[in-house]
Amino acid sequence: MAEKSRIGVTGLAVMGANLARNMARRGFTVAVHNRTTAKTTQFIEDYGHEGAFTGSESLQDFVDALQTPRTIVVMVKAGKPVDAVIDELAPLLDEGDIIVDAGNSHFPDTDRRTAHCAELGLRFMGIGVSGGEEGALNGPSIMPGGDPAAYAEIADVLTAIAANVDGTPCCTHVGPGGAGHYVKMVHNGIEYADIQLIAEAYDLLTHVGGLSAPEIGTIFEQWNTGDLESFLIEITGIVLAKTDERTGGPLVDVITDQAEQKGTGRWTAIDALDLGVPLTGITEAVFARTLSALRDERQAASTTLAGPAPKPAADVDRLVDDVRQALYASKVVAYAQGFAQMRAASQANGWDLDLGAMARIWRGGCIIRAQFLNRITEAYESHPDLDNLLMVPYFTEAVGNAQDAWRRVVVTATEHGVAIPAFSSSLSYYDGYRRERGPANLIQGLRDYFGAHTYHRIDADGAFHTRWSQDGAEVRTD
Ligand code: 6PG
């Protein structure tokens, strides 16, 4: 009888295969399974030499190949396929076995599956895994949610395969139920905002600065040595520098300008609306992708709708530096909003999220890994109940120093007719958030006029209504 495996992975598409290889390379015995047997055979043929794998054709053999209590990582497409695998696995498992969903599942599904598995005597964990194919193989950022006792049983594997920054694994228990997938969802939302801001910077440097893709690539390479240092800035430099083999020009110039999405950014925005958290950067990034998808409509509009006459920037060097500062300030806002959302979700769901720890596990392995996440961890370490990241001195100063350039960028883009939804909405959020008194008093007055929705006064307690169309008198309504 062969030695039983420490952990099993079912679903051997590239993410599942790479996670399994990562585990085996770290010395864990791994049972692997795929719905299509040929894929399992191929996997063993290609990677069998990398570690102690057991390939199983049937789910029963797969389950039998595991040490008990069993730990099974499910890496299939989010949605119905996850439910299908659980339904097939459950009758073969014993009480206390752990099913780990490592895909990009929507957090309410994870909550539902956790409850369903608990009824069956099984333990379910939803873990966010970020880092793409390479991260899965060499060290992703891992956001595990679910029963802490179940986490304690698999923490050795997860922390060993995770990325590691300064001796700290990019993996920590996030919270119960769907908390891990929730944090992964917000990670992806921030990823959308980061990418949108980068795209807007590229658009400005192209259409206002008159720079070519490789020239902008060099600028991003330089930016990656300062405050903006991050994986996404680094790969932007590489993508912009790439020459197309067919045309000999920049590859990016021949890529269709329609952004696709799988849903995590949209879920983040929808949840922010449900929670009542202003999440403008990420939400604008989602809308920008949907606008980009209207390619036919945009092409028709481009010859119909008027814009300003093109004029080159007077001072390109200054534009480049202004855009860098605007990018940094807007990025800070996107993170401030995303963290405010996680705080609100934590309060609403009783998750007790450690926000500093979330920033810590995003420092390595994941798509939004960045130098400045250290500053976010420090911010929450010194102020655990922080309402908004903008309020800690480091970030207050960072956006304060950048604000003049940020405003110039928004003005310049508007004058040149370049759409900058993420830059401008971030600045508007900043200006809205720092106002002691905004214009919502008028909104309340209007609502009271047409719907008797009442308002509060700054100089008296209680709710009031003015009989606008009758005698004009104010009455207290509570
Ligand atoms: C990650 C990525 C990963 C994936 C996104 C892409 O953290 O490793 O976020 O999860 O690349 O799902 O999302 P869109 O297809 O929606 O852009």
Helix content: 40-55%
CATH topology of the largest domain: N-(1-d-carboxylethyl)-l-norvaline Dehydrogenase, domain 2
Shape: globular
By DSSP, the count of extended strands is 12
Low-confidence stretches: none
Percentage of residues in strands: 5-15%
Say which CATH homologous superfamily of the largest domain is assigned: N-(1-d-carboxylethyl)-l-norvaline Dehydrogenase, domain 2
Q: Which structural class is indicated by helix and strand composition?
A: alpha/beta
CATH structural architecture of the largest domain: Orthogonal Bundle
End-to-end separation in angstroms reads 76 Å
Question: How many H/I helical runs?
Answer: 19
Strand order of the largest sheet: 3-2-1-4-5-6-7
Mean pLDDT: 97
Give a list of the ligands.
Answer: 6-phosphogluconic acid
Report what the structure shows:
The protein is of the alpha/beta class and 478 residues long. The protein has three domains: 7-177, NAD(P)-binding Rossmann-like Domain (Rossmann fold); 184-434, Orthogonal Bundle (N-(1-d-carboxylethyl)-l-norvaline Dehydrogenase, domain 2); 442-476, Single alpha-helices involved in coiled-coils or other helix-helix interfaces (Up-down Bundle), CATH 1.20.5.320. Helices cover 54% and strands 10% of the residues. The protein has helices spanning 14-25, 37-47, 59-64, 80-89, 107-119, 132-138, 148-161, 179-207, 213-223, 231-241, 264-275, 280-293, 295-302, 316-349, 355-361, 373-382, 393-416, 421-433, 440-451, and strands spanning 7-10, 30-33, 53-56, 71-74, 98-101, 123-130, 141-146, 164-165, 168-169, 455-456, 463-466, 474-476. The strands form three sheets. A seven-stranded mixed beta sheet has the order 3-2-1-4-5-6-7, with helices on both faces. The protein has a three-stranded antiparallel beta sheet with strand order 10-11-12. It is globular. Residues 104, 130-132, 188, 191, 261-262, 264-265, 366-367 line the site of 6-phosphogluconic acid (6PG).
